[in-house]
Design goal:
- There is one protein chain.
- The chain has 8 helices and 40 strands.
- Helix 1 runs antiparallel to helix 7.
- It has a 5-stranded mixed sheet with strand order 1-32-31-30-29, with no helix packed on it.
- A hairpin with a 3-residue loop joins strand 3 and strand 4.
- It is globular, with a radius of gyration of 38 Å.
- The protein is α+β, with helices and mostly antiparallel strands.
- The longest helix has 32 residues.
- It is found in: Membrane.
- This is Sema domain-containing protein.
- Keywords: Differentiation, Disulfide bond, Glycoprotein, Membrane, Neurogenesis, Signal, Transmembrane, Transmembrane helix.
Amino acid sequence: MSVSLLILAVISLITRNVAWPQDPIPRLHLKHREVIGQRFLGNESHVEHFKLLERAPTSILIGARNAIYNISLHDLTEIADQRLQWSSTAAHRELCYLKGRSDDECQNYVRVFGRQGPDRFLVCGTNAYKPLCRQFTIKDGAYVKKSDTDALGLCPYDPRHNSTAVFVEGQLYTATVGDFSGGEPLIHREKIRTERSDLNQLNGPNFVSSFAYQDYVFFFYRETAVEYMNCGKSVYSRVARVCQHDKGGPHAFSDRWTSFLKARLNCSVPGEYPFYFNEIQSTSDVTDGRYAGRSARLVYGVFTTPVNSIGGSAICAFSMDNILEVFQGAFKEQKDIDSNWLRVLPDKVPKPRPGACVNDSRTLPDATVNFVKAHPLMDDAVQSYFSLPVITKTSFNYRFTKVAVDSQVKALDGKAYDILYIGTDDGRVLKALNTRAPESRDNVGQVIVSDVQVLRFGQAVKDLVVVHLAGEASKLVVFADSEIRAVPLHHCDSPAAATCRSCVALQDPHCAWDATANLCVAVLTKLHDNDADKTLFQDIPTGRHRSCGREPGVTVTPVVYSAQTLTGALIGTCLCSLVAGFAFGFWFSQRLRGSSYPEPSEQRQQLNRLTESSESPGFNNKSINLVLNVPPKNPNGKNANSSAENKPVQKVKKTYI
């Protein structure tokens, strides 16, 4: 019965339109030992918890354990004379030990950095679970300490905590926790913060990124959804925003945001019952480009399923215009604890509009401030810019963690593509793109160009940075907790792309087949040649070029079977298994049944032995078919053999038939 149900379920898939996009197969694989690039390890004796603090044109500042490293982007070496050392005091470490923390935790991990002037900057660190900020100035090439301030609400206690910070016009905006236990989340700017213990504003959030855009500062995070609590517990991805010039509200709201609003981010596979990737992990920077013939500013996000669900990851793109539009839409409310969350009717929204940026928020009426405090959630979700996620991957082996974008890379046909570099929690970097982005938003062409094991297996990718330096090959900088690596943006010279067809099949805008040199080359190295377009072969949409011709023995792309083909193969396998199982079972049952009964010749021999042992005077030459023992009856009519008394054995009369 169970096999029949399985077959019926599989057959039903044939007659349905399955909306789930097929996982793209990487065109190129590189193992860890095959990866060539520079490395920076820092202090190799301890876990550093590297964090990117600032990027300059030719260097990057890295927050680490008791130090800030200045790393050259040319070769990933440290500019040693610009290292800033900052350790926690012995008293702070001793207090940390008394709180039950380990020696590794009771160090100062630098998490926040911001320039307040040409030679003045602010640095914040965990400081042995007592966050501290310190101002420095640069004098004669040396760092000079100015003052220390409490970093409560500015820096996390734990370097592993999901927090984010951004400096905008000299002011520090942070999203972190404000207590030792991590139970008081907040979005903070000097003297202004979110409400305390208000689940409508923040409900167990994990912050992933933040940036300034126009007059706003945006925060991306995931949290337990208050609008779903009547049905159970679920985590939703959010985007929240505050106005840069928010000065707090009147009276009791003087230290509270008057412009804090949030909306859900919808990254899902559409259908009658959409499949949601609910947990945002990171975002890219805002990317300018042309998509489907229109200009747009996109931010790409990494989304995953919950850890106790099927292993799934996706990259979704969101338009900044769509995000702003949602924040101008309707609000959502729950009238009482047993009610559903519904749209707020327009006539119930006070004026001026709650959450809008104004010249002086301290003059807002109480009705507006009270409304935005009670209604921070927007009714509409921000929909993905494309009809589907740009990339989806179902895997029990790894999940996506980070994404970086090499934006608007032009192919030989003049079309521009956003190339995505996706980090995973097991040290891989996937290079991917949407081949249909220049023409359509309704269809998505998912392509994974390469799958490179950049870090040792088990090390999660913590951050990614695309680097373009004048006069040098472009590179990708990959961050782990205790290692930083720089690898090429492309692998056109890989042996896996040694033929025309295999090179074109990569569908990589960075690579093309050079018919003159008979090599797969980086396109940028050929741009100086005016005749390059005549000798370079490339086809991003299809991965095939007619000029490559036939090359026996060369596999252009891995064979990808359709759902119908796989379903047919599964049905055939099930039917063959049923027939084979029935035949084997029938044969085995006959063997068992045959061994339970003797052969006819054995039966005759047994009967003959019984006959020879009888007391009959003669021998019957005829076949004996049956022997009956008929004992005489006792006077009481009972069988003699049925008696248990100790009496002489009587002679039994035997009759042969």
